[in-house]
Amino acid sequence: MSTIELISANKSFGGWHKRYRHRSTATSCDMTFAIYLPPQADQGEPVPVVYWLSGLTCTDENFMQKAGAQRVAAELGVVIVAPDTSPRGEGVPDDPDGAYDFGMGAGFYINATEEPWARNYRMYDYVVDELPKLIEANFPVSEQRSIFGHSMGGHGALICALKNPGHYQSVSALAPITNPSQVPWGQKALGRYLGSDVEQWKKWDTCELIAGATERLPLLVDQGEGDEFIQQLNPEALEAAAAAVGHPLTLRRQPGYDHSYYFIATFIEDHLRYHAKALGRA
Amino acid sequence: MSTIELISANKSFGGWHKRYRHRSTATSCDMTFAIYLPPQADQGEPVPVVYWLSGLTCTDENFMQKAGAQRVAAELGVVIVAPDTSPRGEGVPDDPDGAYDFGMGAGFYINATEEPWARNYRMYDYVVDELPKLIEANFPVSEQRSIFGHSMGGHGALICALKNPGHYQSVSALAPITNPSQVPWGQKALGRYLGSDVEQWKKWDTCELIAGATERLPLLVDQGEGDEFIQQLNPEALEAAAAAVGHPLTLRRQPGYDHSYYFIATFIEDHLRYHAKALGRA
């Protein structure tokens, strides 16, 4: 297991927001993550963890700065961990045109199989396996975990939960990309990371995974009705896929809300309380 | 009165975060401000306004994105207005070396008298006079006002209140520059904006203004004990100045907190509740 190096620490709502760097085996590069440790993490009893996956262009910082989650986490006594959205740094290949929706900042939480992406772009293994092991080895946390995210990160949270029965106590998403194999963002990313075989794409698509899920973990999803990216997100596809197999889904359409962090901040408390309940903290 | 032009709107906690641009008479350039309109602003009764002044390097955006204030404002029914921290744009002179602590992003909420700054750098007139008139003419708000801010903006809030008895119902500050004429940030800015006559500097210095204040409006101040800029802020000078004349001051030293928005976000609710009470909303 790699060692973790503290980058910065800020006191926040009686706990600590900290950023760490470490060498990642999964992504073969240095990775940065942020962690919010509520005051309860200092009190001797292991605290459960909620993993947050951010959307396109984000790093570990956006959520911690903009979502207003620390106040609620401090009240409930849950740790929040926010990884980066892709591998980064020297030697990590990026989109040749510098596009915002592929390459750095756009790992899509999958394991790439195509060159030159396959060596570093393994965010799925990083998020599901390497990062929790690292967190559980280095912080006073329990092995009780939940996962949530926004947009590309909502997609990430949903596929991580659906592909790993028993691994998470609960899952939720804000404005997730529900059906990446059918929309431009997803088709571009999956086509390049995985190649042209559409059957391979389905292994990373929430709407495809729901059909074969062996655990019917309920899904909580918020979607703004004023979301400027609604065509990429396709909540109707998720609704249909869940209905087809009776997968429990609470899809809340929020009138007037867009895709921004103003939307996320408005509903983050609901999501954290939802996870805290599943984690035995409410 | 100039017209205001909507730049963007995001629904937030049932209300709206909006950004506007307008031509400013005070600063002789286009200015941008942000406003948070809580759900109560749609309900027919005029709503009071709290003005937020940001610190060095900020625009109208930092506070609205990072402080988590909208949740509380939506509960209490107060409007928040966040102006920019200086004039900006083509034709507005800036620090020749691009320093972060002078020129654009560093207006210090004073009226400059020295060239080439005197034409545009009149943030005091803008904040105290022009902006409230603009807000009161264009939004469903009352003439009940309070003011608060952080660092350079904490200094701004305190001097605006101290120099204008009756203009604000309440004032507070987070990590304010309390005694600018005695510390490097203030000496650089006041020396260039106002010239070398130190007597002129005192008209814009909280610790100097307290002695002659004709209204003893109580001051609420939070100061992180881990603040990396503590030497520029000098809470002891404020404490001594207030004690010397019996000006009511609640100075709360917060162990472990630094100068960042993580500190601001932690205590913003206390400040908003303090202002709401003075504004008859709690």
TrEMBL record, chains A, B:
Pfam family, one: Esterase
Listed InterPro entries: AB_hydrolase_fold, Esterase-like, S-formylglutathione_hydrol
Known role: Serine hydrolase involved in the detoxification of formaldehyde.
EC number(s) from the headed UniProt entry: 3.1.2.12
Family matches, as SUPFAM superfamilies: alpha/beta-Hydrolases (SSF53474)
MF (Gene Ontology): hydrolase activity
Family affiliation: Belongs to the esterase D family.
Keyword annotations of the record: Hydrolase, Serine esterase
Protein name: S-formylglutathione hydrolase
Domain of life: Bacteria
Catalytically driven reaction(s): S-formylglutathione + H2O = formate + glutathione + H(+)
Enzyme superclass (EC): hydrolase
